[in-house]
Amino acid sequence: MAAANLSGYGGTMAGLYSAWYRNYPQSKFHTINDWREWKQMDKVGHLYGAYIESVGSMELWKWAGMERKKRIWIGGMSGAAYQTVIEVLDGFSKDWGWSWGDIAANMIGSGLLIGQELAWGEQRLQIKFSYHPRHYQDPILQERSNQLFGRNQSSRFLKDYNGQTYWASIAIAPFIKKGNWPKWLNMAIGYGADGLFGGHDNFASTPGNGIVFNRRDIPRFRQWYLSPDIDWKKIPTNRAGIRLLFTFLNAFKFPAPTLELSNGKVFLHPFYF
Q1: Residue 111 and residue 109: Cα distance in Å, rounded?
Q2: N or C: which end of the chain has fewer CB within 10 A?
C-alpha cells in the first residue's frame, strides 16, 4: 500500500506538473497573499483536494488491515502532505507562490476527515465536486478563458473556476432519531462562482501599462446551490469491486434537481452537475 500511494501520487504529480506548471516561468521560492483572489474558489479546491486524497489513502490502509486509529491519522494527514508538495511547486513558480491560505485549507480538508472518523466512525459531511465545461460565444472571452484555464478539458477541469462547483454533502439519517429517511440520501450545499476572468478583477495589462484585457463590465459573483445527493457507500453490497466503485463515485456530486441562488436571483435547474 505504501508503494501504491507513492506510485499513484507520483503519477498524479507528473500529470499535474504537465497540465499546470510546465509552461509557466520559474523563480526563487517566495510567498504570496492570495486570499482575495478567485472568490476563494481556489481555497475550496485545496480543501476538497486534501479531503479526497485523505479519504482515498485511508481506504487503502483500511483494505490493507491497518489498525483503525493509525489508518485514520496516517491516511488523514496524507491529503495535507500531498497538497503541501503542490504548494512548494507554487512557491517556485513566478506566477504563483507559497500561500498560507492554501496551507490552512489543506489542513481543514484533512482535519474534516480525521475529526469525523474519530467522532462518528463515518463521514457524515462529505466534500464533493462537479464540473460543467464552459464555452463563450464572444471570441475575446473564449481566448481569455483559454489563456487562464487551458485549451483542453483535462486542464480546464482543474483550473476553470467558472465551471466548478464544490459541495458539502450532509447525511440526514444519523441526525434523525426517529423516521424512515433513507441512509443513502443526503442533502448537499454547493458553492461556485462565475464571471471570473482574473484573480482580483477582469482586467490585465502588460508591464508597460498596455491593456491586454478589460472586461470590468462583466459581474463577478458567487453561486450557492441546494440539491439532493447520494452517499454511495450507504448502498449495501458484498462485491469488493462495487464497493471500490462507490468510493470513487462519492468524490463527485450526483446530478440532480438543484436550486441556485446567485447574483440576487433564484433559479431551478431540473438537472445540474
Answers
A1: 5
A2: C
